[in-house]
């Protein structure tokens, strides 16, 4: 049986690990070839340990293990020229582009907005909002020349509701919704669909790291994931602390595939009922 995205080519940002790797693998399982990019370097204020070139190579091995082709590049989504060069050369090698998953992002520890440093604010906007715009901007000419396409942007529950002390993240992720809707109206007549996914907590290094444990559980000396879980569970209607990257990949796959062929401009939560609270 043909895969759900058979013979399509997908561009995935932030693909070295976490959700990006999972999206690349899930799309490859359903028949897509992959252009996988990641910064593979530390980001100034990010508490998560950095992804590495070895992580990106592992993503590539996983895709190859599924008998799909893969092209990788170490690129910062803030650097439009490098991003465009990497994507252009990936498309040249794989022959086309059908799917964009603008997933790369960071979560940095915030404070109240009126007390936030300009650097912390600007870094967040540059990566989580402008980086998404640049990723899609680089991809649009290729989608236009193919005559169709599906773009999926990764926002967050924080793109649909606000939390205190993380206003830079909330603003960037709400901005992704505006970007998604704007691209959707501009590109719809060209048969290009644009949607966003809104994960709740996902058990990737962005969440599951030492500094986040300490942030959520300042009452404990050596908090770990088991101490974080009950706090995360309070965000949800369903009785779980977090979802897996694969849960988000299944939504991305649906939006990328022709099963959603008339769905555009939609902000899809994968949130265990977080938005109900
Ligand atoms: N994990 C969560 O709880 C959660 C919840 C909601 C939304 N999100 C969003 O999901 C997306 C993926 O995050 P994840 O959970 O997989 O985290 P992750 O830290 O495991 O993976 C993020 C990847 O993006 C890459 N990246 C970061 N900045 C980059 C840049 N400037 N250029 C290129 N690559 C860059 C990182 O190197 C890393 O490999 C992010 O946009 C994040 O904001 C995460």
From TrEMBL:
It holds the Pfam family adh_short_C2. Signal peptide: none annotated. It comes from the Bacteria. SUPFAM superfamilies: NAD(P)-binding Rossmann-fold domains (SSF51735). GO terms for molecular function: oxidoreductase activity. InterPro entries: NAD(P)-bd_dom_sf, Sc_DH/Rdtase_CS, SDR_fam, SDR_subfam_1. Keywords: NAD, Oxidoreductase. CDD domains: SDR_c. Belongs to the short-chain dehydrogenases/reductases (SDR) family. This is 3-ketoacyl-ACP reductase. It comes from Mycobacterium fragae. The lineage of its organism: Bacteria, Bacillati, Actinomycetota, Actinomycetes, Mycobacteriales.
